[in-house]
């Protein structure tokens, strides 16, 4: 089984500042990692995913994340945020081997609030 | 290309009733997954269907069930509703599985 911990439930930042949303995971098998964003009253949208290969993953809207296997982390970063980035962000993990491990486990979410 | 659609968007039921939620995946997608989102428990995986077969299941009681039709549309049923079943139920579809899923807007269920 896998688990995900998002270390910050809320992150307030000013517009144009950099931001990092932290995510740690636990798994006994190889993993796939994901970041999703949820805007108010909407479903989730995939920002980026790590399946294999390069540990630095670039996603949509200028976001990127780095997979660190030794620290079991997958932190999300953006060098300069906009007001429109205000949303809830979810980190998720899935076992990579298929079978019963191949299902998404989500963190509790981080509410990013970008202030003018 | 149309996105994932869920109907109804809002639903109010009373304890003890049953409810059926519907999800139409993106055309060509054969995998449909269901999730429950609550403020307390967050996002929790319910089950995944692929080509009309349940392929994966979360840790929910048997009151929660689902099915998938030959056109990949899926329904989720909750019987004997409890107050704690009040939640946003999200459906997601993928071409082959959960690696790249697209989510619908959700059905907000309120149990009184």
Stretches of chain B where pLDDT is under 50 for at least 5 consecutive residues are none
Let me know the average pLDDT of chain B: 94
Task: Name the helix and strand elements of chain A from N-terminus to C-terminus, one letter apiece.
Answer: EEEEEEEEEEEE
For the terminal residues of chain A, how far apart are their CA atoms?
Answer: 41 Å
Strand fraction of chain A equals: over 45%
Q: Largest interface: which pair?
A: A-B, 22 and 22 residues
Shape of chain B: globular
The biggest sheet of chain A, with number of strands, parallel, antiparallel or mixed sense and barrel status, is: 6 strands, mixed
| Class from helix and strand fractions of chain A | mainly beta
> Uncertain segments of chain A of ≥5 residues (pLDDT<50)?
none
- Write down the overall mean pLDDT of chain A: 92
> Helix tally of chain B?
0
Number of strands of chain A: 12
Number of helices of chain A: 0
Q: Which class best fits the helix and strand makeup of chain B? A: mainly beta
H-E order of chain B: EEEEEEEEEEE
Quaternary structure = heterodimer
Described by strand count, sense and barrel closure, the largest sheet of chain B is: 7 strands, mixed
> Fraction of residues of chain B in helices?
under 10%
How large a portion of the residues of chain B is in β-strands, by DSSP E?
over 45%
